Amino acid sequence: MSTQTVDRGTVLLAEPFSLDTNFRRTAVVLTEHQAEGTVGFIMNRRMDVNLEDILSDFPELEAEVFFGGPVATDSLHYLHNVGDLLEGSIKIRNGVYWGGDYDKLKFLVESKLITSQNIRFYIGYSGWSSGQLEEELKYGSWVLADMHPNYLFKSKPEKLWEQIMTNKGNVFSVIAKMPDAVNWN
Fold this sequence. Notes:
- There is one protein chain.
- By secondary structure, the chain is of the alpha+beta class.
- It has a single domain, classed as 3-Layer(aba) Sandwich (VC0467-like), CATH 3.40.1740.
- Strands 1, 2, 3, 4, 5, 6, 7, 8 and 9 form a 9-stranded mixed beta sheet that branches.
- A hairpin with a 2-residue loop joins β2 and β3.
- α5 packs antiparallel against α6.
- The two termini are 27 Å apart.
């Protein structure tokens, strides 16, 4: 049993045999964890949509858009590594920030001070009400891991769940190599 605590910047890895289609083989970074509830973003569900299709008033940027989770899918969020440039950003971990002043973001993108290597956009988010995540953890729905900025900005999203499981070592390395569909064994 892990003694790691859940906090801002914790990564939740979906239990490998989860049947929940919203979270199957996902890696979710938590951006807020308080008594009132928890907010996070699925880091490894790339969407087949262009940023300019969503934001008509945004400067040209070849940034990927991800499915952040099933809550408020009419909202757009962003995680980035330029918190020192973008006022209003919330520090998640060293090198990972959430949100910030939208008008300043547009200016920084237009000025080429923020590129697609610095930012990830998310439609919707993952959310848990007060006590809900703790219950899911008791039932073993999630494996806890530490966040690293490379997971967002350098890793291949389609391999991220496996990569983080492997990085945990021991039995998790074996779990990471299991096929997605057990009937393939």
